[in-house]
Each structure stands twice: as structure tokens, then as C-alpha cells.
Amino acid sequence: MGIGRLGRGRDTVWLALAGIVVSLFFWIWLKLVGFVIGPSDALILSEFPVARDVVSQLLRALFAVGTAIAAIRYLDVPSPLDWMEVRPPDVWDLGYILLGVFLLIIAALGSNILIQNVLGLERTMDGASLSNAVLWSRVGTLLLLVGPAEEVMFRGIIQRSLRDVIGRWPAILFAGGLFGFLHIGIAATAPGDMLWLVALSLLGVILGWVYERTNNLVVPALAHGSFNSLTTALPLLLG
After folding, report:
1. Is the pTM of this model over 0.90?
2. Using 50, 70 and 90 to split pLDDT, how confident is the model at 47?
3. Which residues, in sequence order, are CB contacts of 132 under 8 Å at separation 6+?
């Protein structure tokens, strides 16, 4: 199915199902990577927590980018970078990067206050606590690897392809919902955790909106990576 033939109803269903399946396999891949080289009881690199976490984040990014490359080849996109709208950011784009980070922080902070302080719901942690050394390494890997790679997959492929057949906002909401699903934790099943997934979907919607406003995938990629790095670094700096 070439990209030029998108637009029929069956293509909409096919693309939506493909996005769901890819997100599901991404989730399974993350859980498998976490089992083998996760933060606790790692099967390999158990004595090297920083190296273990860097490899884990690299594998996360490689899956997302590899999936995007496979999708582009299957869809027979003639100019992938042009189609995904990848270009150096200009001054206007830099402003939207800052706006995106600001909106992500407000949405995450507001959602956390609503869930825990207003509704009084607890959130559980899925996984072991991480050392400061690992967290500092994540400041770099989240900025350079995870944020951009996930944007290539969720915004550059899923949202971009669906935009052609169902329009901008349905594509933004669908890709944002899949982005929230990606963060489901096996052990995190409290009501507060479920609402937090809705909040994460909202973050995906914000990133999708920034993408559509700028028509530049680099903008949500940098906003996503910067937000992840900033929220990881701040507790270390303030602690």
C-alpha cells in the first residue's frame, strides 16, 4: 500500500490497527528489556547500573526508530524526512519548543495535584528506585535518545499517516492515547495510576498539537526530550 493510495475507509482502519499493534509490541518490548536489564534483579550488567540503564534506553530508542523505518519502507514514502516534516528549527520553532515544555510541565503538575491532592488518590511506583548516577545518565539519554525516538514513532509515523485520512485532531488524539498506553505499568494498577495514564495521554496530545502547529517533527522531539530531562534533573538539583 503506497502512501499515495491512502484515503479510503479501509486504509483508516488499517492504519489505526497498525498503530495499536505497533504500540502493543513496543510495550511488550519495553517490559522484556526491563526484565533482562531492568533496575532490579537484572540478568545482565547487574554490576554496572549506569551502563545497564543506558543500554536499556538505547534499546527503547532503537525499537521506536526501527519501527518507523519499517513503516516508511512499507508505505513506500518517497521522501521520508520531507513527509515527516523534519527540518532545522527556526526562531518560530524554538518558541514552540519552549511553549511545549511549559505546557507539558503545567499539564503534568496540574494532573498530579488533581489526582493526589484534590481527589486523594495514591499512585504506586512500578519498579525499583534508581540511584542518582543512573538518574543523571537519564538526563542525557532521555533528551538525546528516548524523547526524539518516541516522537518519530508516535508523531512522525502514527499521527502523520493518520492525518492524511482522518484529519488533524482525530490523529492527534489517537496518537496521544497510544502514547499514554505505552506507559502502563504491570504493577501500577491503583485508581491514581489509571488517571495518570490519562494525564500522559494529554501530554501526547500537547506534543501532537505542537507538531501540527509547526509542521516540524524536530519541535516535539526537542520539547519531549527537554521535558523528560528537566523533570529528571530538577529533583536531583533541588535535593
Report:
1. yes
2. confident
3. 236
Provide CB contacts within 8 A for 77, sequence distance 6+: 3, 83
Spatial contact of 45 and 55, defined as CB atoms under 8 Å apart: yes
> Taking a C-beta distance cutoff of 8 angstroms, is the pair 111, 234 a contact?
no
- Rounded CA-CA distance 145/65 in Å is 10
- pLDDT-based confidence at residue 6 (cuts at 50, 70, 90): very low
Per-residue model confidence as pLDDT tens digits over 79-96: 999 999 999 999 999 999
d(CA 146, CA 155): 13
List Cβ neighbours of 99 (8 Å cut-off, separation of 6 or more): 210
Handedness of CA 187, 28, 13, 61 (dihedral sign): positive
CA dihedral 87, 14, 12, 18 (to 10 degrees): -40
User: In the structure grid, which three cell numbers stand for residue 83, read together?
Assistant: 513527509
pLDDT of res. 36: 80
Indicate the angle between helix axes 168-181 and 9-37, nearest 10 degrees: 20
Q: In 3-state terms, what secondary structure has residue 183?
A: coil
pLDDT(136) > 80: yes
- How far, rounded to the nearest angstrom, does the alpha carbon of residue 180 sit from its chain's CA centroid? 8
pLDDT level of residue 10 (50, 70, 90 thresholds):
low
Q: Count CA atoms closer than 13 A to 39's CA, side-chain side.
A: 13
> What distance in Å separates the CA atoms of residue 233 and residue 211, rounded to the nearest whole number?
25
| Integer Cα distance of 205 and 152 in angstroms | 15
**C-alpha span between 195 and 189 (Å, rounded):** 10
- Tell me which residue of 103, 92, 33 sits closest to 64, measured CA to CA: 33
